[in-house]
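Q: Hi! New to this. If I give you a protein sequence and the SMILES for flavin-adenine dinucleotide, can you show me the bound structure?
A: Yes, paste them in.
Q: Okay, here:
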Amino acid sequence: MTGNGIETDVAIVGGGPVGLTLAMDLAGRGIRVMVLEQRYRGELPSVKCNHVAARSMELFRRLGVSEKLRHAGLPEDYPNDVAYRTTMVGQEIARIPIPCRRDRYTATGGPDTWWPTPEPPHRINQIFLEPILFAHASAVSGVTILNCARFGGFAQDDDGVTVHAHALDSGEGLSISARYLVGCDGGKSDVRHAIGARLLGDPVVQRVQSSYICAPQLLSLLSGTPAWGNISLNPRRSGTVYAIDGRETWLIHNYLKDDEPDFDAIDRDWAIRAILGVGADFPYVMMSKEDWFGRRLVADRFRDRRVFLCGDAAHIWVPYAGYGMNAGLADAANLSWLLAARLNGWGAASILNAYERERQPITEQVSRFAMNHAHAMAKQRRGIPAVIEVESLAGEAARAAVGQAAYDLNIQQYCCAGLNFGYYYDTSPIIAYDGTPHPPYTMGDFTPSTVPGCRTPHLWLNDGRSLYDALGSEYILLRLDPAATVDGLLDAAPNRRLPLRLLDIVADEAATALYDTRLVLTRPDQHIAWRGDVQPTDPLPLIDRVRGATMV
Ligand SMILES: Cc1cc2nc3c(=O)[nH]c(=O)nc-3n(C[C@H](O)[C@H](O)[C@H](O)COP(=O)(O)OP(=O)(O)OC[C@H]3O[C@@H](n4cnc5c(N)ncnc54)[C@H](O)[C@@H]3O)c2cc1C
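A: Thanks. Here is the predicted structure of the protein with flavin-adenine dinucleotide bound:
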């Protein structure tokens, strides 16, 4: 263990997916980072998140780790589909087709294959994801990860934060001096408690008994094509079974009913067999189990001066649409460039106010999407008719109706284009709005837009590159008409040390369909800060706005 008396720019508590991603992003912007993680090196997380959103994969592409992640998880030809059946081994009643990872970049015709992104979503469990993130982050210059180190508290003043921790193996006390501290320490966040932030919302949305099992025979009992997500819908016990390794390991969620408040009152083994549709003689091994509450809680603040919260430390909700971790990764992508702007000297002190102003409303909104979806699914489970498992015309009709309803309800969560690409920052102090309303979005739908605050619409450049590969860690002025004069903006930026680069875009049909102004200013996190047909007569107020020097 090292770390006593060490100085760093940013100390991060928690080396889960959000903390590691924040560390990589900050280091990529030239910032020194120290991560404190209480788990020992190589200790796996619990088997939770199974879905990495397209928007998160775009972030991982920028960080240079998307390819490694894409090659891990399920076997390359294992279908990523979501199948609805009466039981796991029962009759299939609906299927959402999602390409296996081998075909992910080339498949067409599916409900999410049209998405305008260089990095489609990826299905991979957190137990495979995290070791890759850890290995990648450990190798990034500027990142130091201290394992077996438990955060104990901090003190902050105008200049920095002193972080107190101790080594779990030796008991040795640690003291780290940092300019900023970020709590990425999960739902029970000590950092959140330390800054006195409170979680507000709905403490119990759902009760779930989760079981991670090894059942080598299960695949061979399926009547049709395997799937990544397998949802059993029957009146006895509905639940979800996620394929973890695509061979023999499965994560089963048993959703307790409204009149089942007590986890211990439910026979776990009976419920597993009912969801799978197998008898008492079916062999499986319980690898781990967890009883948990699905919640909808968002912290009342994400910051106390030099200390910030990211990921589950700031918000927790039922992981519908696979948007728990992914929302945390979006927090990290947002906070990273703001902190780096400040530490690199061109962001004004107030730029850091943008983090809470931008991220808190979005996470509040996603938390409601997720909770509403949880309620809608619970309602559907309550209404499954007994005849659904009967071989009769009535049974057939029930299967068709329930299958269609399940597809209609869930396509939006398993192919959640809106959550990936539709959200926008509409009350940010560092975005120059032009009065145009943002296009509405839902969990499943969105409209690409250059209204300031939106994600910069993706397009493929004429040289075959993704636009996002041509963007960098600075502000980029996209010019769609080479005749548009930009010298005023380009000359003004260095006056404030704001890193700004011009990127000319050929205004072909695809580009003009997405970009309706000649100039677009995109931020280091690929959200739009400003747009116009001509540069401002006096560019300095705009430069000052986007670097946080004029607070509104
Ligand atoms: C059953 C289930 C399924 C899920 N499925 C999905 C999904 O498909 N998609 C999705 O996006 N999300 C999903 N989630 C949510 C997802 O797992 C979390 O949102 C995600 O793990 C949060 O990442 P994090 O880095 O913020 O926190 P965590 O993963 O909780 O990591 C926090 C880290 O901080 C460390 N730590 C805590 N306290 C201290 C301390 N005092 N000192 C040092 N270290 C500390 C912990 O050891 C841990 O490594 C699911 C959750 C559950 C329960």
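A: Residues 13-19, 36-39, 45, 48-51, 126, 150-151, 184-186, 190, 210, 292, 311-312, 319, 322-326, 328 surround flavin-adenine dinucleotide (CB under 6 Å). Let me know if you'd like me to explain how to read the tokens.
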